[in-house]
Amino acid sequence: MIKSTHPDCSRRGLTGTRSYFKYVLNHIRDGMMLADPQGIICDVNTAFLTMTNARRKDVIGRHCYEINPHPDKHCVLNPSAHCPINIVIKNGQPVRTEHTHFTPEGKKIFVEMYTFPIYDSSGKIQLMAALFHDLTDQRQAEDALRRLTDYLSNIVNGMAESIMVTDRNYLIKDVNDQLLKLYQTTRDKVIGLPCYKVSRGYEKPCQNVEPGLVCPHTEVFKTGRTVTTEHIHRDSSGNRLIEETYSFPVFGEGEKVDLMVDIFHDVTARRRAETDLKRAYRKLQEVTKSIIYGMVKLVRTKDPATAAHQERTSRIAQSIGRQMKLSPERIKGIQVACRLHDISKIYIPPEVLDKCGHLTKKEMGLIKTHPQVAYDILKLIEFPWPVAEIIYQHHEWFDGSGYPRGVSGKQIPLEARILSAADALDAMTSRRAYHKPLTMNQALKELASYRGIRYDPAVVDACIKLCKKKGFNYRT
User: Fold this and answer.
1) How many C-beta neighbours within 10 Å does residue 81 have?
2) CA separation, residue 378 to residues 65, 344, 397, 415 (Å)
3) Residue 356 has pLDDT above 50, yes or no
4) Kind plus residue range of the DSSP H or E element containing 129
């Protein structure tokens, strides 16, 4: 309560105090209005005029509700029982209220109004003072935040993944609609419950029930880092679910983890598909193995020497592949291609294959068809590796002078370049009707002489390094 006089103030001092007091009021950011008990405005400060976009002469002497034009053409505080001034007069106590005001231009502003009485020396209410604090920016910010929250809430609730927010004590603080749907429950039945009770039906934390279990809650609150885990859950119907959980921290003051957010992604179908795919792949491998075995057996029956050559070539080529640090999968493809690379020779007459003298042009042409014939046979089989293409190009030479396409360098698959060198090495060191076998050193010297011409330099280097290793023997 404010008294309008002070016993220690002289008339001169009172005049000076009022001057200073008015100066201060005109420089504060909140609007202030003085009105008599009937609500007639006696004075206002500068901030009040700025807030209402009015002039002093237009407000002094008018009733307070007149300066707040409203679409209904009367004060929003009518009837008088809701008027702060009337409430203060009736109760003699300050009152704090919030109202919507309108400027003469119709601009809407939100105001917090603090109304209190000013008494005269006899203790009678002489004036009413009202402080107006502009809440417009704050309310607009709150409204924007509310809209953003609703927007984010709609996004979260529209997600296919289940989401759960928990505190340090494992208690659920919030969930999205998908999680409620998963467990066939309602929000009021899960908020405040421990996460382990809702997700697993346990009465204590999961790691206390399942020793060795990695609990994302413990890890996130302990380390402050994001954790990805995979667990088996049961839905409300008891169906087995495999869920991938992405858990991350929400930090509060002082970089302390206040909350944890779990995003549960149902990967049951994906894991089932992966299992089916692995099963199908194993079956394919078995079928492929059977096909390869059958073809190798066919060659061995018709031409044992060619079958043995293919096996030795396969051992050399696989060793070169390992020397060049190829992946096990690529080496497996090389092995299969090598074991089948001369399969088409069963269609070439033995008298041509084993001829001691020089081949005629026609006979050489027949020999040169075997990569194409092998390709035509093997391209119909869906191997996991490019077996048909490797065999088709194993007589291509690095400088482009080979056959059947005449391609060169890295246009030739690496597997075919390895097969080419391995094939030549075994042919040179094996007894044939048309030549005596070379020693290993002689064969390696011959191979090196065609480095960069017929054979890939990197493959030749790997082959020489491999063959000079102590104990290497591909004929066993």
Assistant:
1) 9
2) 96, 10, 22, 16
3) yes
4) strand 125-134
In whole angstroms, give the CA distance from residue 462 to residue 62: 104
Q: What is the pLDDT of residue 79?
A: 47
Q: Percentage of the chain surpassing pLDDT 90?
A: 34
Q: What angle do CA 335, 339, 343 make, to 5 degrees?
A: 145
Q: Which among 423, 230, 213 has a CA at the least distance from the CA of 310?
A: 423
Residue at token pair 């089916």: 276
For 274, what's the count of Cα atoms within 13 Å in the CB-facing half-sphere?
6
- What whole-number distance in Å separates Cα of residue 160 and Cα of residue 144? 26
Residue 437 and residue 358 in contact, taking contact as beta carbons nearer than 8 Å: no
The DSSP code for 292 is: H
Exposed / middle / buried, residue 91 (Cβ in 10 Å: 0-12, 13-18, 19+): exposed
CB of 423 within 8 A of CB of 281? no
Dihedral angle over CA of 447, 448, 453, 456, nearest 10 = 80
For the segment 322-345, the average pLDDT, to the nearest whole number, is: 92
Residue type, 189: K
Contact 395, 404 (CB under 8 A): yes
> Which of 403, 384, 387, 385 is CA-nearest to residue 395?
403
Phi-psi region of 215 (alpha: psi -120 to 50; beta: other; left: phi over 0): beta
Rounded Cα–Cα distance for residues 211 and 208 (Å): 6
Q: How far from the centroid of its chain's Cα atoms is residue 395's Cα? A: 47
Q: Which residue, 246, 398, 270, 420, is CA-closest to 341?
A: 420
What are the angstrom distances between the C-alpha of 443 and each of 194, 342, 422, 423, 465?
A: 75, 21, 11, 12, 13
Confidence band for 68, pLDDT divided at 50, 70 and 90: low
Pick 92 or 14 by higher pLDDT: 92
* Confidence bin at 456 (pLDDT 50/70/90): very high
Residue 330 neighbours by CB under 8 Å, 6+ apart: 321, 385, 415
Can you tell me which residue has the tokens 């026609």? 362
3-state SS, residue 475: coil
Lookup: tokens for 94: 């300050």
Phi, psi of 258 (to 5 degrees): -95, -40
